[in-house]
Amino acid sequence: xxxxxxxxxxxxxxxxxxxxxxxxxxxxxxxxxxxxxxxxxxxxxxxxxxxxxxxxxxxxxxxxxxxxxxxxxxxxxxxxxxxxxxxxxxxxxxxxxxxxxxxxxxxxxxxxxxxxxxxxxxxxxxxxxxxxxxxxxxxxxxxxxxxxxxxxxxxxxxxxxxxxxxxxxxxxxxxxxxxxxxxxxxxxxxxxxxxxxxxxxxxxxxxxxxxxxxxxxxxxxxxxxxxxxxxxx
Length: 233
Description:
This protein has 233 residues and is an all-alpha fold. 81% of the residues lie in helices and 0% in strands. The N and C termini lie far apart (85 Å).
């Protein structure tokens, strides 16, 4: 009888609110990402209708390749371990792809000074980056489907053209970049890194997520250089 009425040890209460708070946070990051994606794309679309000064068409073409690579990385991460976060990441890259295609379409429609010497140099530098990446991957016996190889390919497609863009802006001016687009570019990169961080907390630091982190950190670093050039001009 004494044991029946004796105080029984209780298990420590589980923090059941933590997963819900994490979900709200990732949902908020996704909403910010999608919202600012369309703000970036819309503001840049309108600016390109009036001027393309300082904007390289090679930047948009390389950016499109970068987005498609990251879309593949995010899709493979979702297939390996499906989650709400990885699905949101896929949708984020899909939205960006649509916006870049729209802005690229404006430049093609404008049809003035589409390709110049700086675009040629950019293409050669990107080609060199791709060649080095593929050579190293071959020496390490890694295929094109390896996530880290795709991450380095994304660096070549995004960081190199943005550094070339920074040079063109510094030399010629950057009226072709909308101020809203410059700011929202940083916001969207940082929110994608936030989404990636939560994805890593959920599923660990696998090669798909390492590849995505590499490409996005290079993206932010090169965009900071382009922003500095834009501010100086």
